[in-house]
Design goal:
The protein is mainly alpha-helical. It has helices at about 15-40, 40-75, 75-80, 80-90, 90-100, 100-105, 125-130, 135-140, 145-170, 180-205, 220-240, 245-250, 255-285, 285-295, 300-320, 325, 330-350, 365-385, 400-405.
Length: about 400
């Protein structure tokens, strides 16, 4: 491939390495506090850990999915943030290791009712359900199957990440081949595999917290939440990089506008899926299904649901209708940060009512999320610092570089 006519330094600014170092130090300090919770209040620790893990895993997987969407659809909007999202995608090996505490929780008979002896399950409804449907516990909800399925999920995700990263890295060389067709060949099946694996993972890791409840759309709610988290995280990072070269030259209002439109799209789809689940369950009015909302609309949890509806959908939806707002990175980033907080609150609303009938946010929920987050961000910025912010010799780079250089 021919090199760009005008060369610019595409290396990440020094602030990226500084952030990586500082966040890693903060992560280690918070991890020590989190480990203290693991010995002091292990049940609260593991619940908070599941919340934190699902939150940050969503950013990594959502970033990988958006990269594949861009490879199938094209557009400079995806090229300018490919390395930003690629750095998140490349944290999947770290997240694979960070899944070990969840396996330990299952092995110790914590968090998941199906992993506990029947005599120790305090919820009569769940105990009766597992007794009546003992084949489910024996054939599917067990430690062996839980681990095997997790290995399959992470293997698929890491292989997709490896291929997308490898071919993207080739775009940094002047002799880079045109990998456009390779990207498309992997991205189509890759998105299908992502949808299937995250749906089953959502069942294993989150829905099975209440084995009596089922929802056929639950996996899609988790999936769209991950996509929303990923695009908001990309906006957050590009707002940091926009203060420095080369991102100050590469990131044009049109690209920011497209990112804002993706935020609007994913917000609308998340609300649609969530409302569809509620409407179907309300219309069916089946005892095996309504337990989910009975837990989350009583005991104070209903206020969280109201916040999600108003501040997680209605307000962002109304703000994102504004074209000037979506084109201004300095304004858009604040909404992106807010939505990232809402994503954590949404996962809290899904996970925590399984353990507390009344509204309760424990210190472990906050500390463990911060610990995992700082460690994850430390690895993330380390990844971001390791490659140029744009694959200059990739076939798609001209969508960003040519307008920049006239």
């Amino acid at each position: 491939m021919i090199a760009p006519a005008i060369q610019i330094d595409l290396s990440p600014p020094p602030i990226v390495k500084t952030l990586a170092q500082r966040l890693m130090i903060a992560g280690i300090a918070l991890a020590i506090v989190a480990i203290a919770f693991a010995f002091w209040r292990p049940d609260e620790f593991y619940r908070g850990y599941l919340l934190a893990f699902m939150d940050w895993l969503g950013v990594a997987l959502g970033s990988m999915a958006i990269i594949m969407i861009r490879h199938l659809t094209g557009g400079g909007w995806g090229v300018v943030i490919r390395r930003i999202q690629g750095a998140a995608m490349r944290t999947l090996p770290v997240l694979t290791v960070l899944f070990i505490p969840i396996i330990i929780a299952v092995a110790q008979g914590r968090v998941y009712p199906w992993a506990m002896p029947l005599s120790s399950i305090t919820d009569d409804h769940i105990r009766e359900h597992l007794t009546k449907h003992s084949f489910v516990k024996a054939d599917y909800l067990n430690l062996h199957g839980f681990i095997i399925r997790a290995i399959i999920y992470f293997a698929i995700w890491n292989v997709l990440s490896f291929l997308l990263t490898k071919w993207s890295h080739e775009g940094d060389s002047p002799s880079a081949p045109d990998n456009t067709q390779r990207f498309k060949a992997v991205s189509g099946p890759g998105l299908t595999l992502y949808a299937l694996t995250i749906s089953f993972a959502a069942i294993d890791w989150v829905m099975s917290l209440d084995p009596t409840w089922i929802s056929t759309i639950f996996g899609l709610i988790i999936l769209i939440g991950e996509l929303l988290s990923a695009i908001c995280f990309a906006v957050f990072v590009e707002s940091i990089l926009y203060r420095y070269k080369p991102m100050s030259e590469l990131l044009k209002p049109d690209f920011v506008h497209d990112h804002g439109k993706w935020m609007l799209t994913f917000t609308m789809v998340w609300a649609y899926f969530s409302f569809s689940q509620w409407l179907i369950i309300w219309a069916g009015n089946l005892p095996s299904e309504i337990t989910f909302y009975l837990k989350r609309l009583n005991g104070g949890w209903g206020w969280i649901g109201l916040i999600l509806a108003l501040l997680g959908f209605a307000v962002p939806f109304a703000i994102l209708l504004s074209r000037p707002f979506k084109r201004n990175i300095r304004k858009l980033v604040w909404l992106a940060i807010w939505i990232l907080c809402i994503r954590w609150l949404d996962l809290l609303w899904i996970i925590e009512p399984n353990f507390s009938a009344t509204l309760r946010i424990t210190l472990a929920d906050i500390v463990v999320t911060a610990a995992v987050g700082c460690l994850w961000l430390g690895f993330y910025f380390r990844n971001l610092a390791s490659l140029p912010l744009l694959p200059a010799y990739d076939a798609s780079a001209s969508e960003v570089l040519e307008p920049t250089h006239g």
